[in-house]
Amino acid sequence: MAYQLIKKEGRAKRGRLETVHGVIETPVFMNVGTTAAIKGAVSTDDLRQIKTQVELSNTYHLHVRPGDKIVKQLGGLHKFMNWDKPILTDSGGFQVFSLAGLRKIREEGVTFQSHIDGHRIFMGPEESMQIQSNLGSTIAMAFDECPSSVAERSYIQNSVDRTVRWLERCKKEMNRLNQLEDTINPHQMLFGINQGGIYADIRIEHAKRITELDLDGYAVGGLAVGETHEEMYHILDEVVPYLPENKPTYLMGVGTPVNILEAVDRGVDFFDCVYPSRNGRHGHVYTNHGKLNLFNAKYELDDRPIEEGCQCPACRSYSRAYIRHLLKAKEMLGMRLCVLHNLYFYNTMMEEIRDALDQGCFQEYKKEKISKMS
Q1: I need a surface site. Which of 153, 219, 264, 347 has the fewest CB within 10 A?
Q2: Where are the active-site residues found (predicted)?
């Protein structure tokens, strides 16, 4: 199992990651299925049809419900959700940020209050690795704290130092778990996460420290949490050169199509974001000529597909007018078709990016794509 850097154009990377669950061609967009399902009634058969390479699920949410031990008893996450391609599980670390009112952080780990029934949950590096091992995902993310981008420098420095200590514990525990006889995926990979808010010097120092641990991949976390796009791009400019070029680089939770194009240009090759499914459920659909809101009255008599020439299940069979009617009538099919279209749009854009890198014309492609979409 290895990452192969096939080609570069500037800092943009065209790569390939071999995993126990198949090959991932990069740059790649991972389709977010928080609780082992894409919101919007999207099945794993749908995911295959819309060119999904990697599905992403959430460690914390699956631990709370149905329970990672139940998933393990049922053969692991791949078998549970009938998906034979790669799965990445995040570590639960983002919930340290998103459930700020329901958690307490200390050196051992974090105590949460369940968002479902309020019961206390403790999760530290070892617990996160154990849960992800029970799920049997292809790639496990290290347990980290995602500090707020507006936190004080001293807080962020202390948080990053603790995240390094947690990462060392994650690596040790994953090595132990992968050697157990009853482990579901003895080839589970571990990605570390770079943090540091919008302080470039803290991020660079952190990148150097985690690179020494020689992990399977490296993520940049703690962006798209309140800072401007310009600040995000600046941090990527500063920190990505300090992450190993011969390993996957993953920008967590980002973003819009333009964000992705800009980040690919800066050397990122793994992405995930809830935008395509969340926007789709609200009738907002992506096209090569910008985003459409299908609730708008002007689509009432529009018999064209969402996008001419698109081969997604929605565009092949239905009109804007019909999908608008479904959305207005609160029929689930309307949401489902919009989500399928958006995920297909993202997955197709990543295919185009890979083709452009293969042909050595990514800069032209990026310029034209951004110009059309805006």
Answers
A1: 153
A2: 90, 272
Q: Which residues are annotated as a binding site?
A: 90-94, 144, 195, 222, 310, 312, 315, 341
Q: Give CA–CA dist 165/143, Å, rounded.
A: 10
Decide: 185 and 20 in contact? Cβ < 8 Å: yes
Write down the CATH number for the domain with range 3-273. Answer: 3.20.20.105
- Split at pLDDT 50, 70, 90, the class of 116 is confident
Q: Which residues are catalytic?
A: 90, 272
Alpha-carbon span 318 to 320, nearest angstrom: 7
* Binding site feature residues for substrate: 90-94, 144, 195, 222
Global pTM reads 0.97
Instruction: Calculate ∠ Cα 94-273-87, nearest 5°.
Output: 80
Inter-residue contact 219 to 231 (CB < 8 Å): no
Query: Domain spans of the chain?
Result: 3-273, 278-374
pLDDT of 370 higher than 90: yes
Amino acid at 322: Y
